[in-house]
Specification:
It comes from Streptomyces erythrochromogenes. This is Alpha/beta hydrolase. GO terms for molecular function: hydrolase activity. The chain has 266 residues and is an alpha/beta fold. The chain has one domain: Alpha/Beta hydrolase fold, catalytic domain (Rossmann fold, 3-Layer(aba) Sandwich). The chain contains twelve helices and seven strands. Strand 6, helix 10 and strand 7 form a beta-alpha-beta unit. Helix 1 crosses helix 12, helix 2 packs across helix 3 and helix 5 crosses helix 7. The radius of gyration is 17 Å and the shape is globular. The mean pLDDT is 96.
Length: 266
């Protein structure tokens, strides 16, 4: 399905499950696409939820707009998508960059957010060194393509023991990364380098929040998830054993069990 927005961006997305079900939107990370949520979509729709999984602009089947794409642009795209679907309130979930987009939605469209699900993500603004690295990575992606980057980060996206122990998951994650358009990934990296500090808005969040993290995540370690949990007034924390940065891919049954328990309590 492809809704056309007033800003000219057409997002490709899946809208699955009963239309009368409580809606949940799941936002993929960089450099992935909506198919990363397949295990969660299957579990949630089976439990009666309506699940929307978009390809962010520049990723998957959605169009690529080279240059710089701010997290605010991505959040506004999703708010427009939900408005086009007639959804007034939704559980907003995301992993890594997708979690930061979820926080941006809470900042820019607070009335839309019924609850937050934040997996392996950080609310802090980018450091000066981190911003420099993101901009350099953006140029490298355009110059070299995605495969060198994918090969470099696969054992950080997944726990190293899962790269060898779960070859199917590793192949799936690598294929998603390599299929991403370098210009789209670079645009998001440039925008992400400029992300704001989400801690003030989260500290005042009244809605329920679920914080998840892989026990062996090196990008956003457990300590960062604990700090995020402490910041959010109405949050629960789940550490997923046997997983790195993508516990929804590495340990889908454990991830889904926690997610369904949280949603049932809303």
């Amino acid at each position: 399905m492809k809704p056309q927005f007033g800003n000219g961006v057409t997002l490709v997305f899946d809208d699955l499950g009963p239309r009368a079900g409580a809606p949940v939107i799941l936002i993929h990370g960089h450099p992935f696409n909506r198919t990363m949520w397949a295990p969660q979509t299957a579990a949630l729709t089976a439990a009666g939820y309506r699940v929307i999984t978009p390809d962010l602009r520049g990723y998957g089947d959605s169009p690529v707009l080279p240059g710089k794409v701010l997290l605010a642009d991505l959040a506004d795209d999703l708010a427009a998508l939900l408005a086009g679907l007639g959804i007034e309130q939704v559980v907003v979930g995301g992993v890594s960059m997708g979690g930061q987009i979820a926080m941006e939605m809470r900042l820019r469209h607070p009335g839309l957010v019924r609850a937050l699900v934040l997996s392996d993500t950080s609310p802090a603004p980018e450091t000066e060194a981190g911003a420099k690295l993101r901009r350099e990575t953006a140029e490298r992606l355009v110059a070299e393509g995605m495969r060198p980057y994918a090969e470099e980060v696969i054992d950080k996206m997944l726990a190293p023991y899962n790269v060898t122990g779960m070859p199917g998951a590793a192949a799936r994650v690598t294929a998603m990364m390599c299929a991403t358009d370098p210009e789209g990934a670079a645009a998001a990296q440039r925008g992400r380098a400029e992300r704001p500090d989400y801690r003030p808005v989260l500290a005042g969040a009244a809605e329920p929040c679920l914080v998840l993290v892989g026990a062996d995540d090196v990008f956003t370690p457990v300590a960062e998830a604990e700090a995020l949990h402490a910041l959010l007034p109405h949050s629960v924390l789940a550490v997923i054993e046997g997983a790195g940065h993508l516990p929804g891919v590495e340990q889908p049954e454990a991830f889904n069990r926690v997610l369904l328990e949280f949603l049932a309590g809303l």
